[in-house]
Amino acid sequence: MRARKAAPYLLLLPHILLSALFLAGLAAGIGQSLGLMPALGLTEPTLDYYREAFTRPDMVRAVLYSLRTAAVSALIATAAGVGICAVLVLSRRAHDRLVGLVRLPIAVPHVVVALLTVLLCSQNGLLARLACLCGLIDEQSQFPALLYDGWGVGVILAYVWKETPFIVYFVLALMANIDGSLGQAAVNLGAGPWRAFRKVTLPLCRDTVLSGFLIIFVFALGAYELPFLLGATAPKALPVLAYIEYVHPDMRHRPYAMALNGVVILISVLSALAYYALMCRKVAALRERGGAR
Amino acid sequence: MRRKRIWSGALLTAGAAVILLPMLVMLVWVFTERWAWPALWPQTFSLRAVREVLHRTGQLAGVLASSVGISLAVAALSVLIGLMTARAIVLYDFPGRGAAVFFTSLPLMVPVTVFAMGVQVTFIRLGLNNTVHGVIIAHLLYSLPYAVYLLTDGTRALGVGLEEQARVLGASGLCAFRKVTLPLLTPVLLAAFSMAYIVSFSQYFLTLLLGGGQVKTFTMVMVPYLQGGERNIASVYSAIFLAVTFLLLVLFEKLARRWMRHGGGNFYG
């Protein structure tokens, strides 16, 4: 009987060890953002770095830039992903090859996505050449600067290309499943397919869609590659600015990096709580179904 | 009805074009020598970029080996630890289950940059900084949530009925797990393995910071060319590594199919 009780903890042991390492990293980061760096003789916790971080104009702009690119790209990708799922599910055709194709970008690393974006969207990229062919522009410089611009259009486009398939991957199986069972039941009861989809299938997919949105939002908020490779010199994205402060030869700059990371953590924690609430509903559903012995 | 079909067909075709066009442009760049504004097609083709990459065969082979090796190790560990975690969460009710669920998904909500900058001091203390196994552990932390997610769903869908059936018929716990559960779970194991592999293979920042330039993976080698504006060489590296990834993903699937057949799982035919 005792073995039964210990079993789940034994199974969880490797994960617990990894989680401990993860938490140690997170705690060290938060500690340093509060100015705790024993190696440098800094042992008094302080909020000065946060205060200073929020009065430095480049940092405030970095926060806004990162929030904007992450939110806009995650919103577009989620909407597009759900839209593609809806078309795939509602057209009720065997789309195996198409689904395989839609998943393709998931396997493409972000640095390669950056390359693809440069090849297509830069001022001498394919889109600019097409615009020239159509007579819309004559010179390269007339093509809008989508890359290295203050709005981060290139970064957003790259994220949308990369994350829309993730949403499809994340949502499609569930949506097809629900549509095939409960959605079909609604149709049998007299609802039109579109109405059944809107009133039955979509609401039942809501939690999963929301978790997918949170995952790609937090990812885009804290990812380094795309804003580093496609972003402007100013404003910089939060992680890019944080890394610059982090590798500053003067170690006393490190708390600034951590304060910037602290801002990311704060937004992430709020997202994590929302995500956890969604996961809890899932666990509750699990209990109801009597999955536990 | 027919009009709707045309609409959805057109939409899906447009989507496919958006996905494929950039990849095709990259393939053209692999062989491009000169592509002056505003032509839609390169003026001169050459194998210079390909030759330049292949010329440094030693470097290419080394990077391929370490990239693929690290990601394979991460994927294998993710599936192993992920399956253990999934079984604990799905099959047992124990104090702390909610916390376990929370910690399995936590890395999805903490960006890699935050974690990497925070953990580096700990990594240095543990002697993991600038080492291959340190990079593997860091990648593992970020691959594992996806594996756990997929494996939890799979384990839950499968339930315990069949495994208990085998136990009732006299199989030992290990035997029932190996002969019943594992073959039935193979498609999910494959999905988790592939996803973990992809997540690890795509990492840049974790490898940059915690590998400290000592651990050379594909992204480490490719980015300087991209920054230097050498589009054709960056394209060659990307094409080679994407080809390897897709070949491996197909290979995993083939192996899983074969293994399933020999594992006795006839249920999926």
Q: List low-confidence stretches of chain A.
A: none
Distance between the termini of chain A: 13 Å
User: What's the alpha carbon Rg of chain A, rounded to whole Å?
Assistant: 23 Å
> How many β-strands of chain B, per DSSP?
2
Overall body shape of chain B: globular
- Oligomerization category of the chains in this entry: heterodimer
Structural commentary:
The complex is a heterodimer of chains A (293) and B (269). Chain A is mostly helical. Chain A has eleven helices and no strands. Chain A has one domain: MetI-like (MetI-like fold, Orthogonal Bundle). In chain A, helix 3 (57-91) packs parallel to helix 7 and helix 3 runs antiparallel to helix 8 (193-222). Chain A is flat. Chain A starts with a helix and ends in a 5-residue tail after the last helix. Chain B is an all-alpha fold and 269 residues long. Chain B has one domain (50-262): MetI-like (MetI-like fold). Helix content of chain B is 79%, strand content 2%. Chain B is built from eleven helices and two strands; from the N terminus they run H-E-E-H-H-H-H-H-H-H-H-H-H. Chain B has helices at 2-30, 48-55, 57-91, 97-109, 112-125, 132-158, 161-168, 173-202, 205-211, 218-227, 231-262, and strands at residues 32-34, 44-45. In chain B, helix 7 (161-168) packs antiparallel against helix 8 (173-202). The chains are: A mainly alpha (293), B mainly alpha (269). Chains A and B meet through helix 1, helix 3, helix 4, helix 5 and helix 6 of A and helix 1, helix 3, helix 4, helix 5 and helix 6 of B.
